[in-house]
Amino acid sequence: MKKSRSESTDRESELGSPARQPVTRLPMAVRCVALSAVLMLAHFPAIVFAQSSCPGIHVKIPNIRNNAGSVACALFESPAGFPTEFLHSATNIMMIKIRDSEARCHFLDIPPGTYAMAVIHDENVDGKLATNFLGVPTEGYGFSSGAKATMSAPSFEAASFSYSGQNLNLTIRLNY
């Protein structure tokens, strides 16, 4: 004997099956947008708070005049040779290519201490800051801690910063 639909539903309820609730179906486009939002928000903290996995001093040099040559970043741990003798006196030196008017230097495995940094835009790739006949720089230069060159280069103390051994992000803007 064939049961009607209502008899079948009544019988399931009598046997202890959970009662069925009506399901509200959302349009496919709404479901896709909601799923996309959930996936993006799930990765939001990782994107916003991302840091390099290796502790170090990370330097960003924005607004470089052109992509010619390279950028030299010199890290000093003492006043000796700062900033003019970076090839001989710097603790660490890094030459970086310029990409889209910006460069980044990453100094990893640096012990805690007090440091100063000098950066030059070595447009002619000769390893030094080019100057005119009066001694005025013709290539870009910059220093950590916002130290400025007036009649001469700033002192180590003016450009110095403390490094704790953790990630440190610096931005150094070049002067032309």
Short structural summary:
It comes from Halomonas rhizosphaerae. With 176 residues, this protein is of the alpha+beta class.
Q: What amount of the residues lies in strands? A: 25-35%
> What does the oligomeric state look like here?
single chain
* Helical content band: 10-25%
What can be said about the biggest beta sheet? 5 strands, antiparallel
Terminus-to-terminus distance: 95 Å
Radius of gyration: 31 Å
**Structure class:** alpha+beta
Unreliable stretches (pLDDT < 50, length at least 5) are 43-52
Number of helices: 4
What does this structure look like?
The structure is a single chain. The chain has a domain at 56-171. Helices cover 22% and strands 26% of the residues. It has helices spanning 5-14, 28-48, 86-89, 156-159, and strands at 56-61, 70-76, 92-97, 103-108, 113-122, 141-143, 160-163, 168-171. The longest helix has 21 residues, at 28-48. The radius of gyration is 31 Å and the shape is globular. The protein starts with a helix and ends in a 5-residue tail after the last strand.
SSE layout:
Blueprint: H1 5-14, H2 28-48, E1 56-61, E2 70-76, H3 86-89, E3 92-97, E4 103-108, E5 113-122, E6 141-143, H4 156-159, E7 160-163, E8 168-171
Parallel strand pairs: 1-8
Antiparallel strand pairs: 1-4, 2-3, 2-5, 5-6, 5-7
